[in-house]
Give the backbone structure.
Amino acid sequence: MTNLEFTSSSQQPNAQARDTVRVDLGARSYDILIGADLLRQAGSYIAPLLPRPKTVIVTDTNVAEAHLKTLQSALDGAGIDHASYLVPAGEASKNLSQLEKLCDWLLSQKIEREDCILALGGGVIGDLTGFAASILRRGTRFIQIPTTLLAQVDSSIGGKTAVNASLGKNLIGAFHQPDLVLADMDVLKTLPPRELRAGYAEIVKYGALSDLGFFDWLEANGEKVLALDTQSVAYAVAQSCRAKAAIVARDEREAGERALLNLGHTFGHAFEKITGYGEALLHGEAVAYGMVLAFAFSAHRGECDPQDAQRLRAHLEACGLPASMAQVGNGVFGVDALLDAMGQDKKVKAGKMRFILARALGDTYIADDVSAQALHPFLIAQGAHA
Ligand SMILES: NC(=O)c1ccc[n+]([C@@H]2O[C@H](COP(=O)([O-])OP(=O)(O)OC[C@H]3O[C@@H](n4cnc5c(N)ncnc54)[C@H](O)[C@@H]3O)[C@@H](O)[C@H]2O)c1
Ligand SMILES: [Zn+2]
């Protein structure tokens, strides 16, 4: 899985700035490179994957301002011809009309199936570009260069790509794996702190879901990760990628186990939906509070030690993430609106709500037996209005 030996998941790695995590998917396998200064050296990583010295970069307006020149110079240095396409920053760009414009532009650039499109940005750029790559000429290659912490630990890995539909988020998409992921720790330095914290929530997710040792490590080192200490953040990203890569390798299309990655998401999506998928509540913030609820509900069902639920809540709160309903949006949520939003979640199977619940920190499972009747009093006790 990795070319770097870690002593154990709960210890700081040996001093080394670069790590490789392999996503094992047979003919569709690829590497995630994690380390400092990767963008400046991107030319040497990308060149061997190109059939001819030509590529295109898709990015958003914010990322372009901070990092596009670095990537363009890296490609120049490797003798790779390139053109760039800028999408307005923000979730609103993940739609069908942007997709169509992007595909037209890619065709106008004469991108062939064997060429490799570069997605430079957060999850919005990765999802939009990945989906465009999946349908362009019935499938074109692409490389993820994730620039948000969330994209580095989650959206750039695993091959889910999509745009939003008017009826809901990520409803039009495809599975399409990238050929390489380049996760540069240095690009995170320009990320707004709130976006960084939101991405950190997804890192905590990997510990809470299956790795108590990693959760212990995060409790001790989370502050250093959020301060972007290179070694700490690289270790946290690598551990997260290892966890996701292992699950994706066993269950690429979410027939079973991959659903565990949705820990905190059924609850979280309900709050995102009600607050309008915007600035009021970022996805990672919703996931943070969603995980708090998943553990609290598991404790309420008598399946998990309340002290584990409390430990998770305390760590997220210490990291500046919402850990109570009062800290989410304007803090006012009706129980019926929440239940309604949960019932419409993509993870609903045959009318039954699907939740990831916990037996302990690091030990979670898929529960298909959760009813609205059981959730109702629990949500009221957590602060929802009757
Ligand atoms: N495909 C998957 O498996 C998967 C998983 C999780 C989330 N997602 C999707 O990811 C999206 C969210 O991703 P996100 O949180 O990265 O959002 P994003 O791409 O919108 O990035 C957040 C903000 O940060 C800016 N930004 C990005 N990198 C920056 C940098 N280095 N410096 C300064 N600013 C920077 C962006 O312009 C944007 O304003 C959602 O659409 C979600 O559905 C997909
Ligand atoms: Zn998520």
Q: What stands out?
A: The pocket of zinc ion (ligand 2) is lined by residues 154, 202, 265, 283, 287 (CB under 6 Å). The two ends are 49 Å apart (CA to CA). The domain at 263-386 is CATH 1.20.1090.10 (Dehydroquinate synthase-like, alpha domain). The chain has two domains: 1-252, 263-386.
